[in-house]
Design goal:
This protein has 277 residues and is an alpha/beta fold. The protein has one domain: NAD(P)-binding Rossmann-like Domain (Rossmann fold), CATH 3.40.50. The chain is 46% helix and 13% strand. It binds nicotinamide-adenine-dinucleotide. The site of nicotinamide-adenine-dinucleotide (NAD) has 32 residues, from α1.
């Protein structure tokens, strides 16, 4: 989708980090915005700094792990603007720790937001986008953790690998249906956002965390704080990818050799080496 001006972007996880910067990048490109998050204060802070909000900016409370909440988001977006052309399924959370001590609550929360959030976005928006018959684009935020397997990140990696294959299957399904919708999977490495403090919005009933998370969390926090690309850089690269119709948007080229190594190990029947020794 080369021309973005005047079109409508819907962005989940827009109250912070990459989602917030996607909102600014889309607004700067002349798009109208539907911004969704469960963090109302953060959402309001995003809206307060949107360039040229007069073009149209709707901020909606939404929990992407809940199908009815995402369905309501889509309905309100179409009621307000009549169309959504660019969907960012971006909301996400991270947990850490060894696989054998990850709690059922770690799994339920992470799968609910990172995977089912994308599933619900696809289910609520894509049929409406298809019905309109217009050119459109769905961007699902995975991570480099969707292409390699990182120690202490089994839960996060499992959800992000799932988002990658879900996006690949969606691409095939849309091509078979001869639709005018494109798909991208956005895969950043470490970016300094609120992701290390994901637990700030963790539901009380899913509070039980991995008892051995601490050293892995400290390591991830350090790597995130050292991330050289900013959330604004990721948003710029994402829109570049959308304009160029690129499926894989891997924002950190330094990770490519690790993906290559993994592919060679699979094909060669060798066990995986640690991509983050
Ligand atoms: N920051 C990184 O290093 C990095 C790297 C790779 C991928 N990612 C991915 O980028 C995406 C954005 O994360 P970020 O880094 O900007 O983190 P962030 O914490 O700054 O932003 C995530 C946003 O998602 C929202 N959110 C969480 N649960 C939600 C729910 N149930 N419903 C609706 N909104 C919810 C949060 O309130 C927050 O506003 C995530 O999918 C994350 O996994 C981040």
């Amino acid at each position: 989708m080369r021309e973005l001006a005047g079109k409508v972007a819907a962005i989940t996880g827009a109250a912070s980090g990459i989602g917030r910067e996607l909102a600014y990048a889309c607004a700067s490109a002349g798009m109208r915005l539907v911004l969704a998050d469960l963090d109302r204060a953060g959402l309001d802070a995003t809206v307060a700094r949107v360039p040229a909000p007069a073009a149209g900016c709707l901020a909606i409370d939404c929990d992407v792990s809940k199908p009815a909440s995402v369905e309501q988001l889509a309905q309100r977006a179409y009621d307000a603007f009549g169309d959504v052309h660019l969907l960012f399924n971006n909301a996400g959370v991270a947990v850490c720790g060894p696989a054998w001590t990850a709690t059922p609550e770690d799994w339920q929360w992470s799968i609910g937001v990172n995977l089912m959030g994308v599933v619900h976005g696809i289910r609520s928006f894509v049929p409406r986008m298809l019905a309109r018959g217009q050119e459109g684009h769905v961007v699902n935020t995975a991570s480099v953790a969707g292409f390699v397997s990182v120690p202490g990140s089994s839960v996060y990696c499992a959800t992000k690998h799932a988002v990658v294959t879900l996006s690949e299957c969606l691409q095939h399904d849309l091509a078979l249906a001869k639709s005018r919708l494109a798909v991208s999977v956005l895969a950043p490495a470490f970016v300094n956002t609120g992701i290390a403090d994901s637990a700030r919005h963790r539901p009380a009933e899913l509070a039980a965390t991995n008892p051995l998370a601490a050293p892995f969390e400290a390591r991830v926090r350090k790597a995130i704080e050292a991330g050289r690309l900013t959330a604004a850089d990721i948003a710029r690269l994402a829109l570049e990818g959308v304009r160029e119709g690129r499926f894989y948007i891997l924002t950190h080229p330094a990770i490519l050799p690790a993906i290559d190594t993994r592919a060679r190990e699979i094909l060669g029947g060798r066990p995986p080496t640690n991509p983050m020794p």
